[in-house]
Every structure is written in structure tokens, then in C-alpha cells.
Amino acid sequence: MAEPLLVVDNLHVSVEGKEILKGLTLEVEAGQVHALMGPNGSGKSTLSFCLMGHPKYTVTQGRILYCGQNITELSPDARAKAGIFLAFQYPTAIPGVTITNFLRTALKGVRGGDVPVKEFRQTIKTYLKTLGIPDAFMNRYVNDGFSGGEKKRIEILQMAVLQPKLAVLDETDSGLDIDALKVVAAGINSLRGPERGMLLITHYQRILNYIKPDRVHVMINGAMAQSGGPELALELERQGYEGARTAVSSTR
Q1: What range defines the domain where residue 78 resides?
Q2: CA dihedral 146, 166, 81, 174 (to 10 degrees)
Q3: Considering the entire predicted model, what is its pTM?
């Protein structure tokens, strides 16, 4: 049996001396989409930043394994080059940097060499159409003056261009209307494949109506409370997080 793509093993993480993750354990296999749910303040975004190696978050115990290698101390750029991608809940605007230059530079960094213009254009052509992004957007500055839906589409475009092995999508559905949600979900589904694992962080069931997860996990207060199949998300939609809170309390 192949080893999991991602293993989060008893992870404890602090921010400015305050413990946020409290012994979190999680495995994501290649070829699968795992949904991570939980109320505000449960530590979901903290986990996403830790997986990407954000220096603000201090791992005090436990480890992160990626493709069987311990990456707990690896820098963010090294993780990106190894094939880990993070789509932010609140994408940052970068005035003065066009989307074209941004994506070509990012792709060059991951590949370790220059990307010919013709190849680059061919690479993005299909994804622009899938995500409903006009060609003219490529000459605009990254996220500068973009709507919430446009920002999220550009995030998925980045993922499509970089072709990561592990994609962490932090509340990609946040701020999307129903039409934008369907387009973004279609873009994510187009990138599913046997070699790629995805961790989809969300508050709501609605995006899971379009992206069917293989597994659903629930975080409460920095720890994993429940795990199950897609039906778990439907149960949470009906009953809320009270059952998960009870499960965590009973183990402490």
C-alpha cells in the first residue's frame, strides 16, 4: 500500500505563545479530496499556513510528512518547489505586477528554469476558458481591483499552471455567489487526478455539492473531532457542530 501524500502527526502549533493546534493528526492520500470543516477559531487556517511553512506559526511538537519526507523545518519556497500549493482565503493584491509576469515567474521558480512564451500561453489557454477568465485579465495587476470571485478564479488558475502534488484550498468558497462558486468548483474538479491530493477547508456544505470529497474531517478547538465520508458534511449541515464538540470533550 502506498504511503499517504500528506501526514500531519500529533501537530502542536503556537502563535505568539498561544497554542492553536493541539495534537492534530491527519492523512491525505494522493488522488483524494479531503474536506476540512469546523467553526471559526478552530484552527483550520492555522493548519493551512503551517503546511506552507509560514514563519509566524511555531511547531512545538509533532511533524509534517510530505511524500514520506519530514518537511516540518522546510522553508515555504522549498515546499512550493516540492509541489505544495496554498490558495489563500484572502488573496493579496500586488499592484504593478501583471498576472502574466506573476504566473511565469512562479512557474519558473517551481521548474527551476525559464518557460518559453509559446509554451506558457498554451498552458494557460484551456484553464482561462474553464474558469471564465478573459484573456485581457492576464495584463492586469494581480488581484488589484478584483471582485472576490475574480480573486478566487485567479487562485485556481495559479494552481492549474503550477500543477502541485498537494493543494491546500483555504475557504476558496468564501465570498462567492452561486455562479462564481460553480465556476470555481468546476476548475477545482478539472484538476483532480490520481497523483494530486487536495485539502479543501470550508465552513459550509454548499461547495461540497459541486466538489464531492472522499473524506470529511471536523476540527474543534485545535484538534480533530470527527472524520467520515461525504455524509458527515450533510450531518453537520443538519445538526451543526455540537456533536463534534461533545466528541472532543469526551476525550479530554
Answers
A1: 6-250
A2: 20
A3: 0.92
